[in-house]
Write a structure and sequence with these properties.
Elements lengths: L2 E4 L8 H13 L3 H5 L9 E4 L1
Parallel strand pairs: 1-2
């Protein structure tokens, strides 16, 4: 099940903040498993900017 997520940018939001949010959502279910030697899952979030 994918959760469609859109991160909306604004002039007051910095680029690094927006890309950090995208990276965190995209890595859910991927990085923790990789660090502990478990099979990598597909992220539950379908992220776009």
């Amino acid at each position: 099940m994918n959760i469609k997520t859109v991160v909306i940018g604004s002039p007051l939001a910095g680029t690094s903040v927006l890309f950090s949010i995208l990276d965190v959502l995209a890595s859910v279910g991927r990085d923790w498993e990789m660090l502990h030697g478990m099979p990598i899952k597909v992220s539950a979030f379908e992220v776009s900017l």
